[in-house]
Amino acid sequence: MSDIIQLLPDHVANQIAAGEVVQRPASVVKELLENAIDAKATSIKLIVKEAGKTLIQVIDNGAGMSVTDARLSFERHATSKIRTADDLFQLETKGFRGEALASIAAIAHVVLKTRQDADEVGTEIKIEGSTLVSQEVCVTATGTSISVKNLFYNIPARRNFLKSNTVELRHIIDEFHRVAMVHPAIKFSMHHNDSEVFQLLDTNLRKRIVTIFGGKTNEKLVPIQEKTDVVSIEGFIGKPEFAKRTRGEQFFFVNDRFIKSPYLNHAVTAAFEGLLKDKAYPSYFIYLQVDPKSIDINIHPTKTEIKFDDEHSIYAMLRSTIKHSLGQFSVAPVLDFNKDASMDTPYDYKNKEAVPPKITVDRNFNPFADEAKQTASGSNSGMPRTSFQKEKPKQWESLYTGLSANKEETTNDFSSVIFEKTEITSSLFENETQKVFDANTTYQLRRKYIVSTIKSGMLIVHQNRAHQRIVYEELLQNITLATGISQQLLFPLQLSFSAQDVALLITVQEQLEHSGFIFDSITEEQVSISGIPTTATESEVQVLLEQVIYDLERDIPNSGFSQTDILIQSMAKSIAVKTGVILGPEEQQDMVHRLFACTEPNVTPDHKSTFVTLAIDEIDKKF
Asked: Which of 74, 320, 384, 555 sits in a 20 to 30 Å window from 160, CA-based?
């Protein structure tokens, strides 16, 4: 029998490795930014075109590479970060496996320009699909500039799986945020299709976060800090009243590396227990520093998951640190029996000096002066003291006349006494039994379902899903016909969003106006609204727009109708009656009637059942 195992060619092996390292354009951005940081760059510029599908370019002023290093950087498992296997457990750099550039070069056209400060000229290398096209001397600035063009040009199947430009750009911005937030001392800039998206100057952590997420973020942040032998914790958490319905602003960094950890996320949520509304998620920007030997960051191809040696201790310390900060800054109540709250010094009086009180004394005051005058006047008048006695009323016996007669009459005569009698009914549920068979009668079960009767048996309606279908079709009609009805607000709403979220709202502003919104003004970080749809309430507008932004960032297809459809679905989710809301009998009946007046009453806009029926035969089988 012939041999069937053979070594794969290098270009095939590189494409397989690229499938693990490069999932989308954002993966390329992450690897190139981390390489620039490892090169000790103080200024990094990111240029993107067509959401990274056409061009991704990173320019830095780092150390640069020699001619030999520039060529070896595109070979598999070629790295300057590690020498032995033990170095894997003492990592202090971003990239270390030597697969990033090799994987990127296997699926794109790559142009590298680099020069060290001591050299007069630099090196330019062009690679297409792992094939070296040219290597020559060039004139370039100190540092490295690497351009990745036509991503997945030789793997059409992978390119077809990419999402729309809006979704892919959102992923690129997320990766840019994760790198920029952990390195505030480095200048970052980002351009997309020749327009500036970010311009971040070197600053501290708090200002970097505020610059990225908008000026209103500053008032939402509560600092946390704790240093122990196991872990050093610092960063910021959002105040409970600013919690959102989405998990957007949640960041963990371990040793200056972004990670995802459901276990640590649970520690944060546990610290906020009792302070958050239902289905609200707190914001946090938490930076952890641990011993590199106590973690393993090589368990995931994208290095976003980390294994801790003692994660239980880190969980407990993180939870207690957040609880302490919430209490210290009066965000959460603190129960301390040994502490007198009246002895706390307000922050306004922290640096003020004590002012001695001024005491004014009336030295001519004599409390016995008036008494002495009265005594003297009484003794000099010679008038005798008089004692006042209460005068007895005349004919006092007449007050008790007839008392004995009334007492005897009350005691002996019971003929005029009327006793209350409770009416006895033949059946306690007699009236209810009549109502059960009334087709117009509905009942609410556990504040979640509406139960009614039909000819064939029983109807059970999910109130939240049913209302989603009702609101969806109403909004769809308003937007498609451009006949949305608005309710005017007495005072316009001033809502704050990040610059990226505002730009996304502008793309769907016309559809929002057709649904009933009236925008007074839209600035870089603020939206002013003077009118809202009649189906929404003023308190729901912030959550509604946040849900719209969240869905548009992740699910928006290319076609205009689909974009409108996603928008309406998001609004319907936010406006619909939630589980737990008590509905009156008339509201229940109205919802059932409006549901079956819809064109597709069976399912929600995202194809979930709105009601079920139980036939008499099914009910009989239960007995």
From this structure: 74
d(C-alpha 14, C-alpha 104), whole Å: 9
pLDDT of residue 336: 55
List of E strands, 498-546: 518-522, 526-533
Q: CA nearest 35: which of 47, 26, 48, 44?
A: 44
Residues 6+ apart with CB under 8 A from 303: 257, 297
SS3 522: strand
The CATH number of the domain where 14 resides is what?
3.30.565.10
Across residues 159-164, what is the average pLDDT?
A: 85
| Residue 66 within a domain | yes
Q: Is residue 541 in some structural domain?
A: yes
Q: How many whole angstroms separate alpha carbon 273 and alpha carbon 280?
A: 11
In-domain check, residue 207: no
Q: What is the C-alpha separation between 615 and 184, in angstroms, rounded?
A: 65
- The kind and range of the H/E element at 192 are strand 187-192
Task: Give dist(CA 614, CA 112) in Å, integer.
Answer: 68
Least confident of 68-82, 386-400, 503-517: 386-400
The 10s digit of each residue's pLDDT in 189-211 is 999 998 898 999 999 999 999 99
Query: What domain range is 261 assigned to?
Result: 215-328
For residue 26, pLDDT beyond 80: yes
CB atoms within 10 A of CB 256: 15
Please report the pLDDT score of residue 413 as a whole number: 54
Of 199, 245, 200, 206, the residue nearest 224 (C-alpha)? 206
Does residue 383 sit within a domain? no
Residue 281, CA atoms < 13 Å, CB-side half-sphere: 13
- Contact between 180 and 188 under an 8 Å Cβ cutoff? The reply is yes
How far from 94 is each of 124, 460, 490, CA to CA, in Å?
A: 24, 55, 53
Cα–Cα separations (whole angstroms), residue 25 to 75, 146, 147, 167: 21, 14, 12, 11
CA 497-503-504 angle, to 5 degrees, is: 90
Tell me what pLDDT residue 432 has: 40
Instruction: Give the residue carrying structure tokens 């989603």.
Output: 468
Q: Mean of the pLDDT values across residues 566-583?
A: 86
Both tokens assigned to 520? 């007074």
**What's this model's pTM, rounded to 2 decimal places?**
0.67
| 542 closest CA partner among 280, 244, 217 | 244
Instruction: Kindly indicate the confidence band of residue 436, based on its pLDDT and cuts at 50, 70 and 90.
Output: very low
Per the structure block, which two tokens stand in for 202? 């070197």
Between CA 257 and CA 269, with CA 263 as vertex, the angle to 5 degrees is 105
Count CB neighbours of 533 within 10 A: 25
Check: CB of residue 520 under 8 Å from CB of residue 530. yes
